[in-house]
């Protein structure tokens, strides 16, 4: 009889513990919408003007501003955002694994990527260009890259465009990050750095590099920046598109452009129509 009483009491304690654990797991879930919970967003951390982690641990850039605006519309405060670095070659994997809720990282929408992930947006139309040293006048057209050492980032659409369409005989060198390419360009290890004009403008406008580099002004492709998210998540895609539409309509988009690209005199395109991709 005594044994049954002890067993019943133990069962009651166990039931209470399980209930508390269940409640705790719900509160701790990192990517549930709203309620002060955390959200993890993938960004770049080495692209001035786009996504940069500063020495004091803060995050700045146009993509950071866009991501923060979206998160707020989804119900998260700025303090609830966990920004996670996602390199170009790792973006699809990070989304598929669920490492991030979404990615805002100069992420160009293309057919190949659409096979693996979905995109909201676009929220910026950029163009592929090249950055060269300020005293170098030898590259007057994309064809001139055929005899040059060209740097780009592993996994980027820029590298693929050059090799397949623009300058197949260019000596392409792919590095892990744009900052490495920039160092190579400054040290004359490479002749040019290619990626989107918005990214190049961000680098060229940094205080330490002002006057050292220049953009060639080649509009070699249309790069529609989109918000990458898990394939098939139609609900999140709609919410993000609604947030982007609001960001454009209330003037926040223009303010973010001016704050992040203004110092470089970047001639940006007008805000694209959300859901309309220019090929």
What is the overall silhouette? globular
Mean pLDDT: 85
- Low-confidence runs (pLDDT<50, min 5 residues)? 1-35
Order of helices and strands: HEEEEHEHEHEEHEHEHEEHH
The N- to C-terminal Cα distance equals 79 Å
Overall radius of gyration: 23 Å
Determine the number of helices (DSSP H or I, runs of at least 4 residues): 9
* Number of separate strands: 12
Helical proportion? Answer: 25-40%
Reconstruct the topology from this structure.
Layout: H1 2-28, E1 39-43, E2 46-47, E3 51-53, E4 59-60, H2 62-73, E5 81-85, H3 91-97, E6 102-103, H4 111-114, E7 117-133, E8 149-153, H5 157-166, E9 171-175, H6 178-186, E10 192-196, H7 197-204, E11 213-215, E12 222-230, H8 234-249, H9 252-261
Parallel strand pairs: 1-5, 1-6, 8-9, 8-10
Antiparallel strand pairs: 2-3, 3-4, 7-10, 7-11, 7-12
Question: What does this molecule look like?
Answer:
The protein has 279 residues and is α/β, with parallel strands linked by helices. It contains nine helices and twelve strands. Strand 2 (46-47) and strand 3 form a beta hairpin. The protein starts with a helix and ends in an 18-residue tail after the last helix. Mean pLDDT is 85; it is low at 1-35.
């Amino acid at each position: 009889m005594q044994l049954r009483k002890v067993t019943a009491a133990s069962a009651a304690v166990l039931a209470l513990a399980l209930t508390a654990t269940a409640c705790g797991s719900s509160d701790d879930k990192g990517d549930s919408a709203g309620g002060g919970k955390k959200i993890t967003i993938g960004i770049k951390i080495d692209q001035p003007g786009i996504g940069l982690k500063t020495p004091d641990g803060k995050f700045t850039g146009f993509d950071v501003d866009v991501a923060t605006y979206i998160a707020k519309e989804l119900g998260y405060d700025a303090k609830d955002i966990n920004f996670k670095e996602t390199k170009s070659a790792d973006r699809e994997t990070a989304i598929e694994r669920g490492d991030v809720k979404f990615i805002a990282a100069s992420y160009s929408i293309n057919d190949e990527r659409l096979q693996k992930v979905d995109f909201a947006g676009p929220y910026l139309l950029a163009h592929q260009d090249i950055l060269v040293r300020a005293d170098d006048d030898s590259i007057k057209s994309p064809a001139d890259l055929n005899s040059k050492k060209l740097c780009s980032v592993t996994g980027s659409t820029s590298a693929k465009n050059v090799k397949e369409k623009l300058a197949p005989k260019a000596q392409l060198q792919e590095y892990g990050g744009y900052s490495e390419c920039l160092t190579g360009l400054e040290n004359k290890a490479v002749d040019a750095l290619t990626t989107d004009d918005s990214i190049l403008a961000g680098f060229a406008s940094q205080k330490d590099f002002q006057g050292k580099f220049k953009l060639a002004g080649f509009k070699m492709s249309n790069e529609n920046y989109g918000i990458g998210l898990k394939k098939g998540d139609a609900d999140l895609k709609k919410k993000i598109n609604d947030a982007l539409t609001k960001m454009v309509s209330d003037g926040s988009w223009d303010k973010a452009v001016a704050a992040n690209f203004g110092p470089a005199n970047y001639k940006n395109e007008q805000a694209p129509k959300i859901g309309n991709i220019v090929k």
